[in-house]
Amino acid sequence: xxxxxxxxxxxxxxxxxxxxxxxxxxxxxxxxxxxxxxxxxxxxxxxxxxxxxxxxxxxxxxxxxxxxxxxxxxxxxxxxxxxxxxxxxxxxxxxxxxxxxxxxxxxxxxxxxxxxxxxxxxxxxxxxxxxxxxxxxxxxxxxxxxxxxxxxxxxxxxxxxxxxxxxxxxxxxxxxxxxxxxxxxxxxxxxxxxxxxxxxxxxxxxxxxxxxxxxxxxxxxxxxxxxxxxxxxxxxxxxxxxxxxxxxxxxxxxxxxxxxxxxxxxxxxxxxxxxxxxxxxxxxxxxxxxxxxxxxxxxx
Length: 300
Description:
It is built from nine helices and eleven strands. The chain is an alpha/beta fold. The radius of gyration is 23 Å and the shape is elongated.
């Protein structure tokens, strides 16, 4: 499923611009945030050393302490290497935006930041692009060249499908990743019946969902009779947006859908990083890092 893509020079320039922009963000804004919340899968024993003021009592090795007649503690090294997998929705609805960028452009930048964060911490990172089928997979790997390959592939991939099958993508992911990994699902989540696949994957992996939105999906503008085309099915409907009841009904239905999604993710204990084409991803990602960091510190 790995494709070789002939990349024109202008695309390579765009990849480098994205790398420079996201690398600055990673080095300045996200430095330490990523590492602090994604711990290794375990701890490797390193040595026993004499107790020092400030050491935790629970780290004392009581057998050695009794033998040496003074306190000793066990020291461990965190097993740092992690696997990060990005699931990026490239269905027809991602080619939509009414502010400054399409949802697909937002997904590309968010994927680039997460990729560069993982590479900076020497973690393995891969990507899966999907629509109503799995379109393209880059298996997890390390290093700058690998990171640039991921950014390039997300940027230039032309989808074959238009629909969305998140369940199918998550099922493929479970077969692809034999060990527990960090999984970022970047999608506008326009797919019914998400609870079962989300629940299954979140039990096997550390799943984080980043819903992509556009402000026009929350409220209809008052522009008279307008025709709207579904980018995934092609269905066209005419709507009288000048009717206040129509606009209010749309807003209520939109908010109910978003509230239902938030409740579902909370019920499944899945972290959410909501991003939209107006506000971007920077603040949302920082809020996620900091909130999760507080939870990690409380557990420790």
